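My current task is to audit a protein record that another person submitted. Thanks in advance; the entry in question is below:
***
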Amino acid sequence: MTCVEAEGDGYRISTDRGDWRCRALVLASGAFSSPVVPRLSELVPAGVEQLSTRGYRNPAQLADGGVLVVGGSATGVQLAQEIQRSGRPVTLAVGEHVRLPRVHRGRDIQWWMLASGVLDQRIDEVDEPERARRVPSPQLVGAPERATLDLNALQSEGVEVVGRLAGIRDGRAQFSGSLRNACALADLKMNRLLDAIDEWAQRNELDDAVGPTERYEPTLVGASPRLGLVLGKDVRTIVWATGFRPDYSWLRVPVLGPDGALQHDRGVVAAGLYALGLPYLRRRKSSFIHGAEDDVNELGAHLAAHLDRTARVEEAAFATAR
């Protein structure tokens, strides 16, 4: 597909194998098409290698020496662990993040969130919908061992954790002094979630079927986290684990906001135009594979009604023309 344009009461889809015409279109291209690299990258000295998570393959492609991983969500913590284990010293710059245990009381945390209804929370039940849609991905890793990978686990392996990358000046990376607050907030939110899960388990008489109640050590933050690193000396490579954004460069319909984001009402973009698979589209689980079904059922009903309505209009126009 190379282009989507409005045409008449429908849409024209251009591809390298010809064009298609349709009355309704579902955009299911996902939210993670293009890596987000902050403009700070333009201030990095020329001798420091820079990679986005799309360009990263394995530690062997990195220069010897220190590595700065920017971003403390799922990808950032996984790359920090892998690169540290390769023998390169790693510094992880962390801002707002979501901490979760991989397993809680003997069950995977995703099992708990699905079973207890957390993942079914609807976007119209949230106080700040747009903020909810921008929440970072949880610090989780999938592995046969079902190990928890959080900042404590990384620090136990030698990764140095610092605050959010706030600036680059004269070849020196500058880190925010808010690391302690960011970690305390992540711990607070995790414990609130676990409290809610435990209360749900008790109400549903599951306490005897699962493991005992457990809580986790607070995130360890040193007395004086580092506030700067010399790029080119302390750091030879920067890996930008700073997220992804959708790519709508092919969408030639006026439905994008000033920031390039798709404007929609719970997946309804415009007449006959819909979206699926975006974060918190209708529910917390909307961007998960298992979360699409409920959204499909609701948007499918809206789409079917649109097709019925447009078909009746076409039939009436045809009858009048006769």
The first strand starts at residue 3 and ends at 7. Residues 35-244 form a domain with the FAD/NAD(P)-binding domain fold (CATH 3.50.50.60). The mean pLDDT is 94. Residues 292-321 form the longest helix (30 residues).
